[in-house]
Amino acid sequence: MATAEKDICAIRAKKTKVRTGCITCKIRKVKCDEIKPACKRCTDTGRKCDGYLDLEHLKKARQQQLLVRRQHKSPSLVSDPQSDTSFLSKIVSDEDLHWVQYFSQQTAPALSGFADKDFWSCMLPQLSLSDSSIRHALIALGSSHAHFEAEAGTGLGASIVKRDYSLKHYNQAIVSLQRQIGGSSRTTESPLICCLLFICLECLYGNRSLVLEHLRNGLNILDSTRFKVDTPGPVSFLMQKLNHIFSRLDAQSTLFGKPVSPQVLEVAAAPSSMNFSSFIDLTEGQQLLDLLISLSLNFIRSLHDECFAELSGGVSKHALQRKLQEQLLSWRSGLDTLESTSLDLGQFAQSTLSMLRIRHSACFIYLSNCFEPVETSYDNFIPEFTAIVDRSETLVRMSTQPCGIMNAATSTKPLFSLDAWFIPPLFLTAIKCRDPVVRRRAIVLLETNAGREGLWDARLHARVGRRVMDVEERGMLNFGDYRTNTFEDFRHASYEGTTLQDWCGSIPSGMPHESFRIQRADILRTLEEPCRSARVTFFTTRDGALTPLTCWEEDINF
C-alpha cells in the first residue's frame, strides 16, 4: 500500500464489530452466546435459532465487499480482463496508445483527489478497452492536458500535440456515444463517463457554457429513474463514485451562473438525521463536507436568484442559514476529534486535513455573510481569512502534494485539477478580506502558483482580486477622500503595470470605506485566443448600504 493510502487509513476511528453469532441474533442485533447447535439466547426466549453461517462463507463475503469498496480493477463493464498496453496496441495506433498512457500517468493523478485515485487512474483506462466512446474521450483529454501544460509553461503547446488531433478524438467520442444511445444499449455508465470527460475537456478550453451544458446532461442522466442501479457490485460502486463527482461539480457550478438545483435545496430544507460530527476516516469526512458545501452554495444561489421561497417548502431562510451553520460547526468538531484521536499522521494525511479545513472555512464565511447588507461584515472574519492563507502557504511548501494548485509549487508548469480546492478560498480572501497584508498574501499565492481547478483559473482570479483591491483602496490614498471625491474618480483610474503600494510607498494601514467596497465581481466570459482575457462586471453600492447596485464592466487580460 502506498504511503499516502496508509496515512488515510491511519486516520480511522477505532471500532470493533463482531461478525459471528447465530443468524437470528444478528437480525435482532443482540449479543449471541454462540452455543451450538442452537444458542440459549434464542431457545430460552422461545425463538427458533436459525443456526450459524459457515465461517468460510463469511470470509468470502467480506472479500467480495472489499473488492467493491476498494474499487477493484475489474468492473463488470470491462468485457476483456486484460488491461495491459499490449492488448490496447492491437486496436489503436501508436500515437493513440501514447496518449492513453499519458492520461493514466499524468492526467489522472492531476484530476484525482485523495478519494478518487483508482477511479481516474485504473477504472477509466480499463473501461476504454471495451468502449470506443470512452477511449476517444480519454485520448482527447490526455492530449489536451499535455497541450495545456506545455502552452501555459512555455507557449509551445503545438509542438507537443496539435489541437486538431485532440478535437478529432473529441468528435469521434461524440459520434460513438450517439451511436450507442441510438442503438439497443441502455447502459448508464458510458454516457455519464463521457459527460465527465467532456466537462474536463471544456474546462481545459475555458468554455464555461459547454461545461454547464455537459454537467446538466450528466445530472439529468443521474436523476433519471430509468438508470437507477440498486444491485450491489462494481457497477453500482462506479455509479456511486460518478454521483459523488457530479455532485461536487454541481455545487461548484452554482458560482458560475448555474441555476439552483431544486432537489438539493429540498434536501437542505428537510429535517435531517445525519450526524455530521462523526465520520470514520477522511474519505467519509470529505463526502460529508462536499454535501454541506453543495447545500450551502445552492441555498445562497436561491437567495441570489430570488427563488428560495418557491423551492424551500415554507422554511424560513434565516432558520435554514442557522441550520447549515450548525452543521458546518458540527463537521469541524468531528474533524477535530478525528485528528486528535489519530496517531502518527503522515504528511499526506496532514495536507488532506488542511485542505478540508480551508474549504470548510471559506464555505462558513460565505454562508455567514449571505444576508449582511454591508461588506464590512466580512471584517469580523479576519482570523478565518488568515487561517486560510496560513494553511495554503504551508501546503505550497510541502513536497508531497495530492492534487490541484499545490502541484504548481514544485513544477514550472501550471497543472489542471477538476475539483476546486484552493483557488475559490484564496479568491474569496482576495476580494472579501480587507486586511491589506492578508489579502496581498492571498493574491500572491494565486499569482505565483498558476493553475486551473475546474473553471477556476488562478491567474485570472488573481488579476480580478488585485483589481478589486486597487479600486477599494484608492479611497485611502492621501490625495483621495471618499467624502469629497466621486466614485467615478477612483473607478476609472488605472493601475496598469503598478500597484497601490507603489503609489503610496507603503501598504495601507486601514481598511476601505464601505462606499468603495466591491460587493461582487462576476466573470462573464473568458477568451483563450488570440489572447487570454475575461469580461468582468463589478458591483458596488457607492451611495451606501441598501441602495441600488452600481455596476460597470472591464476586460482583464491574464
From TrEMBL:
SMART domains, sorted: GAL4
CDD domains in alphabetical order: GAL4
Methyltransferase recorded as keyword: no
Annotated ranges, domain Zn(2)-C6 fungal-type: 21-49
Keywords of the record: DNA-binding, Metal-binding, Nucleus, Transcription, Transcription regulation, Zinc
PROSITE patterns in the record: ZN2_CY6_FUNGAL_1, ZN2_CY6_FUNGAL_2
Cited InterPro entries: Fun_TF, Transcr_Regulatory_Proteins, Zn2-C6_fun-type_DNA-bd_sf, Zn2Cys6_DnaBD
Record keyword DNA damage present: no
Annotated GO MF terms: DNA binding; DNA-binding transcription factor activity, RNA polymerase II-specific; zinc ion binding
Superkingdom of source: Eukaryota
PANTHER family linked to this entry: ASPERCRYPTIN BIOSYNTHESIS CLUSTER-SPECIFIC TRANSCRIPTION REGULATOR ATNN-RELATED
Protein name: Zn(2)-C6 fungal-type domain-containing protein
Species the sequence originates in: Myriangium duriaei CBS 260.36
